[in-house]
Design brief:
The complex is a heterodimer of chains A (82) and B (184). Chain A is 74% helix and 0% strand. With 82 residues, chain A is mainly α. Chain A contains 6 helices and no strands. Chain A has one domain (21-80). Chain A is rod-shaped. Chain B has 184 residues and is an all-alpha fold. Chain B contains 8 helices and no strands. In chain B, helix 2 packs antiparallel against helix 3. Classes of the chains: A mainly alpha (82), B mainly alpha (184). Chains A and B meet through helix 1, helix 2 and helix 3 of A and helix 2, helix 3, helix 5, helix 6 and helix 8 of B.
Chain lengths: 82, 184
């Protein structure tokens, strides 16, 4: 396939950058997954923590010093909704 | 070896080994592609596109071990994004027009263009940092000569000639990737 410069320019324009915040959030995925696994493992091992999560997720996490991002919180809500 | 110069297959191998910098590079390498498919090909709203974008990379992260051919990362990500976009459109069918054959046909055409654009971006990654920066800022980020000049500390009057020189280099790089392309 031949590439003239006009075509190259058009194709360069076709891929503008994704919003920086989206990229950063996706890049942080391994770390947030690690945090999620840690919280779930703790909840499985500690019934009181699990009950606290079910009763008031955000407060229970804050009390234990966890600061999950919004997506991790969503996953935890799905898992520990009362 | 610098991460941006790794092939997709090498990058996948490093991600599987848990190398955080490799994951950052994978997201960075495909972020425009996934964004383009969601927003341009499937015309999702920013809100839906963001959900698709994050879901897509979450699935890539979770299923990287299941990828049978590591060099097929790009088509795999494309199909994953396509499916997520269609699900999103069908899920919100009450607020959005139904996903008909005609719409899907146009989306496929647009995906083909984005795939070609990814090839151009891959070739761009092999050029010098200056050329990469100047072409990306001018074409993909739509910046003016003045903004580029200020950002790169170059006289605005030299930007046009640099763009032209870098475009020629990019063309050579692309034609090097496609032997025989002159004959087409």
């Amino acid at each position: 396939m031949a590439y003239d410069e006009e075509r190259i320019a058009r194709l360069l324009k076709a891929l503008p950058p994704a919003p920086e915040g989206w990229v950063r959030a996706a890049q942080e995925l391994p770390r947030s997954r690690q945090g999620l696994d840690e919280i779930v493992a703790r909840a499985e091992a500690d019934a009181r923590f699990r009950e606290a999560l079910i009763a008031d997720l955000e407060s229970a996490l804050a009390a234990e010093g966890f600061q999950p991002d919004e997506r991790t919180l969503e996953r935890l809500r799905e898992r520990f909704s009362s | 070896m610098v991460l941006p110069s790794l092939t997709d297959a090498q990058l996948v191998a490093r991600c599987r080994a848990g190398e955080e910098a490799a994951w950052n590079e994978l997201v960075s390498r495909f972020s425009r592609y996934v964004y383009g498919i969601a927003v341009q090909a499937f015309r999702l709203s920013e809100h839906d596109a963001e959900d698709v974008f994050q879901d897509c990379f979450a699935r890539v992260y979770e299923n990287l071990d299941k990828l049978r051919d590591d060099s097929a990362l790009r088509p795999w990500i494309a199909q994953l994004t396509r499916r997520l976009c269609i699900d999103r459109l069908r899920g919100g069918a009450r607020e959005q027009p139904a996903v008909g054959e005609e719409f899907l046909g146009l989306a496929e055409d647009s995906m083909a263009t984005l795939d070609e654009a990814m090839t151009v971006h891959e070739a761009l990654a092999a050029l010098s940092g200056d050329c990469r920066e100047i072409l990306d800022r001018f074409f993909a980020q739509d910046q003016s000569y003045r903004t580029i000049g200020e950002a790169l500390d170059l006289p605005a009057g030299t930007i046009a000639s640099r763009i032209s020189r870098c475009l020629s280099k990019l063309r050579e790089a692309l034609e090097g990737k496609n032997p025989g392309s002159e004959a087409v």
